[in-house]
């Protein structure tokens, strides 16, 4: 799979010859320097955009043949997201933020599900708070509740601890992996933080748009060429 | 790079920035509204200047209720002055069965002494200036009159018993008086025809004017000679006095349009401020970078000021052009015919509106830009290290000062400016409060709705500060336009419809005592209903409670009547109405009493000829003036009244199916028939025209409101795109993003439309109650149309301003730092 854009100086290849597969329940960290293309790769894997060459098969669907709305339908049922800057809607309460994702996905009883999800992340006492009334760690926990509430098969996390201090970051990461394990969700994580990356079953390193190496995560930590 | 080059680079590089475009649009709208009004008033002003000396058609005029003595004429000729005579009279004219009121003007050889008449051979034919007056037996009629009679030149009309053939169309007369809207069309005839018409019976309501012109010293000499000789009801008019009158009319029109323009300017200023704040925010990174590279604060400040100057100059050019077009439309609407006599517009007033735009830019847009001076260069390393954006303390004074100075400059009247400003502020505050409540309510409702509704309504609520500004701005513009529409289309009609079916619509004045029975019978013969004939005398009020009346405005001549019982449509509110055989008693209308302070128990001394008589106020009456019956402020007892020299006045209603009044007019040529219905039609037409002219100006108010909306949209665009990208990433499809935006804008449009429509209907109702004293009921159709138009306009603009949000790709959510 590859991804390029037209730039003033000609065609710019952002991702080249990427080949990657991930099974259900597996955890994968993508690491790399800034500008290496790891965030673009995450976006493509999640179906936020389409590759310009090759194809991506997500939950059995070939993304290249799907338009934006069809990919949206795929995402709402099978995919969850956690972002570096949380991306909660500031105009909605914690509970409403979680409910919104469930309602978009068309779940029954979104309120009950959302209450359950917020309870799992320990925020039952913060339901009616707006994002601006929550700390960074709490906001990210709301985002995690939102991501898991719909019980997605695969969760994409973009620098989930990037905007948090070390201690809060670790507790958020603990929560993420705990829920991942409990729900049996596959996890794709983009990060700079090698300590976080090593908690994943697999680590892929990306450099200048190419996957250059695979390291074992939690199990070993050795790299292979 | 020097500041000028830097400013030009900043301007050209960012010429497609939304905030810059909105800033420009705000300045353009303000300029256009101002330019339209100042260009138009300049044209009217010059039209009046051009007529200086012509407004009287003479250098000096002696006026009188009776023909002026020959010795005045002789003296003027002796001093080597030119003279001419005019007699003015309102009379009903018949062409076939069709009758209309005309303003008759009979002239003698030499008229006009100053200025020229312009005439055409027939309707639509070219006009030419012509010296001379109509030959006896012929007349020149204004185009409007010929159109009223649905005829053209060559037609014969009867003036009293004198037949006159209309030979030419009167296009222009120099001495039309201050009002650009004469109530009845003009007909000019030869004096001999009037004298032979029998219209000039005793007590007829003719106004006589002796025109005098010549050397300055001769005119001054004549004035010195005639002044001490002036009799009662004679007066002198000079050019300066006549101009003061027309000046007042102009001043009123100018203020009316000025107030309309002012609302546009206030809203445009809000848009300019919003857009400038947004533009300033978007420049912070750039300014930090420039500073980090070594640019000095002073240089940046100068470059930003210059950038604003270029923008303002461009806005002056574009806005001036738009204003030029708008003033042409206003001129066309207000002119009496397609060939309005206004001189062409000139560019000079644009200097004024241009300086004004510069003031607006300096007051409202400069402070946010100047605040960029304080951007910390550390910002390029870390945004959180930047100083808080905003204005340095003292700079806030500029927009506030601007907001206060602008209306004063615009209206040239501190008190009026404060009233307009205060009134708009109160109205805006009410609208804002209503908008705030409505938004709070919508947020509460949204908690019980589906995801797309919650997303849309929560968006509205989240940006409620902006939303309230947008709703208020749009609400004001829409309300002004709807209100004018209500006044134009419904208020006057409903008022006339609210009058009782037998409301008088005609008056006959100047009926002599021996003619009353004959006239009454002839009127009833012609089908007139509710005929009331009442005596009337003119007396001098000499003293109140033994003292001369303190106020000259109501001292002197007053009209009185007498009757033996309380007249219909009158109600006694204080005291008791005098008995039929009472003497020395008087009844006053409440309205007159309030104006003069004369009340129950006061004694009034009157003089009629050589006779004096005294009476005491024993009752006060509330009068239904809108009944159009003959009513008088002062009612005497019959014993006091019948001894006075008097005439009669009749009021009646003439149903549609009634016959013509030709027999009445021809049987008694001295009486004057006044068709109130036609006068009301004419007043309605004038209100219609003025409203339409104001609508042109209020259109700019609406556009200014739309610019506020778009500027606010521009300011929140990034936020909206971010939100749209997020819900897309979460799996929402195009339709849901679109629905969310539609719901947000729909709710805003709904609130603005409800407030504007409701506000206009309420104001119309208040106007009707206070001015016309009837309960106005807005028609459902008008309200629905107004509501739908407002709704579609706001939702449409919101939609257009938000297209880029709809195109946002979900991948953006991973790119933006948040």
Automatic annotation (TrEMBL), chain B:
It is found in: Cell membrane. The keyword Iron-sulfur does not apply. It comes from Wenzhouxiangella sediminis. The keyword Transferase does not apply. InterPro entries: ABC3_permease_C (IPR003838), Membrane_comp_ABC_pdt (IPR038766). Keywords: Cell membrane, Membrane, Transmembrane, Transmembrane helix. This is Oxidoreductase. GO terms for cellular component: plasma membrane. It is a multi-pass membrane protein. The chain crosses the membrane at residues 256-279, 300-330, 350-370, 391-410, 416-438, 467-487, 693-713, 745-768, 780-800. Residues 260-366, 696-810 form the ABC3 transporter permease C-terminal domain.
């Amino acid at each position: 799979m590859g991804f390029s854009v037209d730039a003033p100086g000609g065609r710019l290849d952002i991702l080249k010859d990427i080949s990657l597969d991930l099974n259900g329940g597996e955890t994968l960290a993508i690491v790399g320097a800034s500008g290496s293309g790891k965030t673009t790769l995450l976006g493509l894997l999640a179906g936020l955009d389409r590759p310009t060459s090759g194809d991506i098969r997500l939950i059995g669907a070939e993304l290249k043949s799907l338009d934006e709305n069809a990919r949206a339908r795929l995402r709402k049922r099978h995919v969850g997201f956690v972002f570096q800057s949380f991306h909660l809607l500031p105009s909605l309460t914690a509970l409403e933020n979680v409910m919104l994702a469930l309602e978009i996905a068309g779940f029954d009883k979104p309120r009950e599900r959302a209450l359950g999800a917020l309870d799992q992340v320990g925020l039952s006492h913060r339901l009616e708070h707006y994002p601006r009334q929550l700390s960074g760690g709490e906001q990210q926990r709301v985002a995690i509740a939102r991501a898991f509430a719909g019980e997605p098969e695969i969760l994409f996390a973009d620098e989930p601890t990037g905007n948090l201090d070390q201690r809060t970051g670790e507790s958020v990461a603990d929560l993420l992996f705990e829920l991942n394990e409990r729900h049996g969700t596959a996890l794709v994580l983009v990060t700079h933080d090698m300590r976080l990356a090593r908690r994943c079953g697999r680590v892929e390193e990306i450099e200048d748009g190419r996957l250059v190496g695979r390291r074992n995560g939690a199990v070993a930590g050795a790299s292979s060429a | 790079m020097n500041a000028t080059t830097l400013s030009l680079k900043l301007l050209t590089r960012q010429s497609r920035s939304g905030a810059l475009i909105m800033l420009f649009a705000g300045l353009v709208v303000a300029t256009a509204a101002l330019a339209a009004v100042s260009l138009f008033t300049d044209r009217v002003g010059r039209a009046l200047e051009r007529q200086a000396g012509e407004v009287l058609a003479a250098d000096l005029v002696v006026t009188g209720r009776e023909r002026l003595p020959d010795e005045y004429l002789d003296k003027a000729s002796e001093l080597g002055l030119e003279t001419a005579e005019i007699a003015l009279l309102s009379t009903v004219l018949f062409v076939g069965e069709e009758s209309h009121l005309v303003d008759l003007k009979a002239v003698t050889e030499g008229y006009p002494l100053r200025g020229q008449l312009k005439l055409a051979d027939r309707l639509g034919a070219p006009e030419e200036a012509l010296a001379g007056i109509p030959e006896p037996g012929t007349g020149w009629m204004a185009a409007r009159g010929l159109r009223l009679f649905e005829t053209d030149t060559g037609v014969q009309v009867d003036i009293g018993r004198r037949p006159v053939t209309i030979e030419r169309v009167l296009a222009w007369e120099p001495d039309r008086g201050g009002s650009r809207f004469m109530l009845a069309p003009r007909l000019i005839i030869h004096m001999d025809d009037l004298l032979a018409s029998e219209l000039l019976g005793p007590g007829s309501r003719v106004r006589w004017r002796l025109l005098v012109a010549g050397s300055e010293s001769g005119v001054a000499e004549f004035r010195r000679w005639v002044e001490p000789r002036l009799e009662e009801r004679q007066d002198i008019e000079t050019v300066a006095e006549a101009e003061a009158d027309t000046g007042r009319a102009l001043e009123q029109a100018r203020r009316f349009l000025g107030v309309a323009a002012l609302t546009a300017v206030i809203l445009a200023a809000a848009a300019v401020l919003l857009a400038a704040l947004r533009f300033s925010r978007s420049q912070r990174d750039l300014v930090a970078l420039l500073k980090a590279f070594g640019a000095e604060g002073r240089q940046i400040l100068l470059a930003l000021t210059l950038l604003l100057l270029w923008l303002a100059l461009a806005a002056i050019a574009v806005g001036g052009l738009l204003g030029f077009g708008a003033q042409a439309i206003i001129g066309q609407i207000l002119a009496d015919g397609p060939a309005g006599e206004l001189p062409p517009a000139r560019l000079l007033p644009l200097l004024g509106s241009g300086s004004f735009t510069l003031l607006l830019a300096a007051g409202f847009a400069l402070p946010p830009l100047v605040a960029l001076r304080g951007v910390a260069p550390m910002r390029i390393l870390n945004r959180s290290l930047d100083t808080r954006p905003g204005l340095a303390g003292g700079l806030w004074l500029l927009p506030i000062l601007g907001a206060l100075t602008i209306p004063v400059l615009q209206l040239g009247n501190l008190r009026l400016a404060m009233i307009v400003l205060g009134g708009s502020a109160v109205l805006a505050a009410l609208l804002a409060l209503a908008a705030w409540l409505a938004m709070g309510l919508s947020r509460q409702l949204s908690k019980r709705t589906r995801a797309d509704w919650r997303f849309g309504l929560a968006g509205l609520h989240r940006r409620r500060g902006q939303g309230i500004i947008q709703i208020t701005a749009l609400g004001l513009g829409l309300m002004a336009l709807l209100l004018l529409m209500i006044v134009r289309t419904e208020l006057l009609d409903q008022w006339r419809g609210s009058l009782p079916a037998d409301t008088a619509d005609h008056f006959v004045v100047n009926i002599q005592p021996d003619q009353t029975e004959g006239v009454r019978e002839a009127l009833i013969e012609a089908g007139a209903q509710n005929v009331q004939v009442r005596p009337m005398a003119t007396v001098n009020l000499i003293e109140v409670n033994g003292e001369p009346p303190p106020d000259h405005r109501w001292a002197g001549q007053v009209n009185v009547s007498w009757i033996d019982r309380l007249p219909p449509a009158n109600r006694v509110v204080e005291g008791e109405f005098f008995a039929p055989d009472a003497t020395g008693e008087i009844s006053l209308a409440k309205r007159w009493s309030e104006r003069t302070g004369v009340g129950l128990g006061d004694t009034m001394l009157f003089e009629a000829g050589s006779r004096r008589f005294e009476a005491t106020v024993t009752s006060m009456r509330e009068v239904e003036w809108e009944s159009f019956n003959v009513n008088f402020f002062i009612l005497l007892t019959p014993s006091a009244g019948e001894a006075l020299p008097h005439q009669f006045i009749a009021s009646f209603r003439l149903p549609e199916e009634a016959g013509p009044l030709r027999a009445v007019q021809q049987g008694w040529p001295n009486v004057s028939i006044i068709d109130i219905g036609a006068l009301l039609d004419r007043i309605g037409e004038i209100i219609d025209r003025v409203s339409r002219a104001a609508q042109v100006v209020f259109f700019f108010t609406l556009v200014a409101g739309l610019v506020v909306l778009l500027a606010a949209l521009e300011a929140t665009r990034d936020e909206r795109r971010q939100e749209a990208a997020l819900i897309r990433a979460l799996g929402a499809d195009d339709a849901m993003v679109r629905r969310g935006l539609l719901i947000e804008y729909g709710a805003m449009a709904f609130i603005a439309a409800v407030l504007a429509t409701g506000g206009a209907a309420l104001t119309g109702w208040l106007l009707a109650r206070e001015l016309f004293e009837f309960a106005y009921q807005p028609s459902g159709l008008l309200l629905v149309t107004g509501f739908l138009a407002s709704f579609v306009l706001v939702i449409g603009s919101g939609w257009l301003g938000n297209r880029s949000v709809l195109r946002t790709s979900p991948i953006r959510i991973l790119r933006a730092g948040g």
